[in-house]
Amino acid sequence: MSDKAVISIVVAAYNEEEVILESYKRLKKVMDSINEPYEIIFVNDGSRDKTAVILNEMCVMDKNCKLIDFSRNFGQQVAITAGMDHSEGDAIVVIDADLQDPPEVIPKMIEKWREGYDVVYGKRAERKGESVFKKITAAVFYRFLRKMTDVEIPVDTGDFRLIDRKVCDALKSINEKNRYVRGLISWLGFRQTGVEFVRDKRFAGETKYPLKRMIKFAFDAITSFSYKPLKLATYLGTTVSVLSFLYLLVVLYQRIFTNQVQPGWASTLAVNLVFNGIVLIILGVIGEYIGRIYDEAKGRPLYIIRQFKNFRDDKK
Ligand code: UDP
Ligand code: MG
C-alpha cells in the first residue's frame, strides 16, 4: 500500500435534488482535509427531478466529481455496484446521498483500512429521525436475516462501508441480479471490522424505500443467502401431512365403528381453508425463488448507462 492512496467515494442518488449539493459539499470538505487524491462517483439512478442537472454542473466545476447516469431507475443496490465497477481507488467508500451516513466517519474508516482491514463497515449505534416503524422493522429484519442465513452478516449495518480494491475486484466477479451488496461482501470473507456511528436523520427529502421496496429488499437478502425458507416450507408441509393423516384415522374410526352422524360441513371447511392457505404460502415461497432463477437465467446486464462524465476512457 503506497502512502498516497486514491480513495473512491460512491454515492447512489435517486431523486435527491434537495440534498445532493449539500452532500457533495460535506464530502468535499472531509476529503480535502484528508489530503489524498480522491474521486466522488455519483450514480444517478434514473432520477425524475433535477438531480442529474445538478450533478452535471458539479462535474463541470470539479474534476474530482464523476457521474454515471443510468438510463432509468435500477435500484440502489445496482447503482452502488455500477459505482464500484467504474471506480479506480485503492479503497472504495459507499455512502448514501441523504447525509444519513455522516461523511465525517470516512477518515476513521480509512484509518482502520490502513491498519490492515479489507472491509470497514459503519455500524449504526443509533438511528435518528426515523419512524418507530422503520426502526423496529429494521431491527427485526437484521436479526431474522442472521437466523435465516449461513453467512455472517453484521447486524445494524447499511451499505455505508469502506472496501479495499481487492474486495471490489472480487465483487465484480459476482453477477447476481437481485443483489444484496452488503451480504455479498460478507460472503466474500476478508478481514472485516466496524466503526460505530450515529445515523442522522435525512437532510431533506423523503425515504426512497417505501414499505413495498423494503419487502422486496428483505426477500432479496434472504433468498440470496438461504435455502431455509424452502426447508421451512418442507417441514411445515410434512408436519401438516402427518397431522392430517392422524385425523384421517379418527375419521375412519368414526365412520366404521360408530354410528355418529357426521356434522361434516364445519370440519370440512376448516380443513380446506387451513390446507389451501398453507399450500399457497409454500407455493409463494417456491415462486420467490423461481422468479429469481428466472432473472438470473435471462442473463441481462445489470444496468444500462446513458452517459459518463469525467471518467478516463479505460474506466468507462
Ligand atoms: N437510492 C437509489 N435508488 C433507489 C432508491 C434509493 O439510488 O431506487 C439511493 C438514495 O438516493 C439514497 C440511498 O439510496 O442515497 C438510500 O436511500 P434512502 O435514504 O431513501 O433509504 P433509507 O435511508 O430511508 O433506508
Ligand atoms: Mg436514507
Quick rundown:
Helix content is 50%, strand content 18%. It has 316 residues and is of the alpha/beta class. An eight-stranded mixed β-sheet has the order 7-5-6-4-1-2-3-8, sandwiched between helices.
Inertia-based shape: elongated
Quick one: CATH superfamily of the largest domain?
Spore Coat Polysaccharide Biosynthesis Protein SpsA, Chain A
Strand proportion: 15-25%
Structural class: alpha/beta
> What is the CATH class name of the largest domain?
Alpha Beta
Uncertain spans, ≥5 residues at pLDDT below 50?
Answer: none
Instruction: Describe the main β-sheet briefly.
Output: 8 strands, mixed
Proportion of helical residues? 40-55%
Q: Give the strand tally.
A: 8
**Ligands, ions, cofactors:** uridine-5'-diphosphate, magnesium ion
Query: What is the domain total for the residues?
Result: 2
Mean pLDDT, all residues: 87
Please give the CATH architecture of the largest domain: Alpha-Beta Complex
Strand order, main sheet: write it out: 7-5-6-4-1-2-3-8
What is the straight-line distance between the termini?
25 Å
Order of helices and strands: EHEHEHEHEHEHHEHHHE
| CATH topology value of the largest domain | Spore Coat Polysaccharide Biosynthesis Protein SpsA, Chain A
- Radius of gyration, in Å, reads 25 Å
Could you name the key traits of this structure?
316 residues; Spore Coat Polysaccharide Biosynthesis Protein SpsA, Chain A; 8-stranded mixed sheet; binds magnesium ion; binds uridine-5'-diphosphate; 8 strands; alpha/beta
